[in-house]
Sequence to fold (574 residues):
Amino acid sequence: MPLCISPNEACVQRLHLLESKLRRKEERIAELETENALMHLKLSECYGKLERGNEEKSRLCQLYEEQKTCKRILMQAVSRLLEEIQILKQHVKDLYHTYVTFYEELQKNSQNFLTEVTAASESLKVHCFGQNGFYTRVPMLERALQEMKTQYENERQKRKILHNTLVELRGNIRVHCRVRPVLPNDHEDTEAPFRCGSISEKVIHAVNDDTIFVSSSRPGYPTVNKRIEFERVYSSEDSQEVVFADVRPLITSLLDGYNVCIMAYGQTGSGKTYTMMGPLGEDNLNSEDPTEEGIIPKSAKELFKFISERETGHYSVEVSIVEIYNNEVFDLLAKDSDGTVRSIKREVITMVNGRSSVPSLTYERVENVTEIMYFLNLGMQRRVKHPTLVHTDSSRSHLIVTLTVTMHGTTPRGMENEQESSYHNCSSIKNTEEYVQLSPPKPNILLVPEHSKRMKMKLELVDLAGSECVAMSGVTGAALLETSFINRSLSALADVLGALAEQRPHIPYRNSKLTYLLQDSIGGDAKFLVLLCVSPSQKYIAESLQSLYFGCRARQVQKGQPKKKNANGSLKFR
Fold:
């Protein structure tokens, strides 16, 4: 009996069959859509290739046209070249014709010259006999020339001694000048926003030991050709030892009873701190190489050396260090309530005797050079510095190191007569040679009670802040204010020297704390040495000329004869 299927089951089976077919159709549709997408991608690629092919075809067509143009230009160039070759061939023919003509003339002239040379040779033989006589005179003339050179050098040294003596008698300020070597920064030619110039040509030269030559020629500026004389000039090759050799006599004068002031003046980066301290300032103050030490360390050593060699009297030495920053005086060795050394502001006042003084200024007693260098290091660490485009370690203040020497006890009386006779009696000297060789009489030594013997002398060593061109140094903000105070104080110093040179009734010492503090040295009774430091480069010619003119003005100052202190502390004219 056949299996009977109900209508509902048949419908369900039919439905499952249709759903299966529907799924297969949907899967087929999905496959066809995927294939359609792939075909679209291939079609896009074909379109891209077709477009690139068209572009390549266009580029090839353009390249073909360019080749045709280049070929045409090349043919034209070849045609012109052929024309020039034809012209050159014609020139060669003309040159060859000229050469042949010249050769024929040369042959003719050579024959003539040969004839003249033969005649001259005959004439020369005649003159040789007379020439032999001149040859015998040459050694004699050379010896005479050498003697004249030696005599000239001797006379020049005598003139220098006489000139220095005249300067000391007239009381003029001594001015020395030192030309520093050319430094790498002088050769920098990079245009900076604050640069005044970038020329590194050497325009300042030390001609000899007392003459500077300035030769400068710049577009848009007047030409400068000047020879300037100073008491002493140092070239860039002169060492620290050579510079100090001319300072050493002043240390002797200090113990002989004279106040002494040595000042370094010049623009930023001209070598002032190197000259006064040594290489890199305080970083090398304790250097083991004594030849590189500056004037301050060498002066301290020389001072204690002279003291140790003195057979009479007892000496005590004190050191004080101040800086003048923004026209204010700061004590660099002052101590606060905790005993810590720090910079403290001080004031300058005028004493009853008319001399300037700094109340409460710190004076440290020192027994040797090591202690001086210790305090000098402390002071240099507190000195205000700021980098500029001209100098990476530019000092922003004036530094004044003072060594006060007090002589106590038994000392030779009559010392004030030492080295005086050669100056007071110069009118009775008959000739220059006798004056130069004259030696001072020995002092008449008389001992007096110790309580009446007390003499105090000062050695002031000044490292001025450098004058600056603001546009070249590139300073702004607080550094610009510092530059303003520096330049104003240096200008005040120049005004004081100008007033002294012109012997005006009023000298503007109080226009600046610098001149106020150094009043006794600049216009007083101290032996005063200004050491100008200048750069040799064209780049800094304006500042260097300003420094040289400052030195010329200082040389014109007549202070009167230096005064020497008696054993009781009073002053006496030399």
Notes: The radius of gyration is 45 Å. The longest helix spans residues 7-170. Residues 189-198, 411-452 have pLDDT under 50 and may be disordered. DSSP finds 13 helices and 19 strands in the chain.
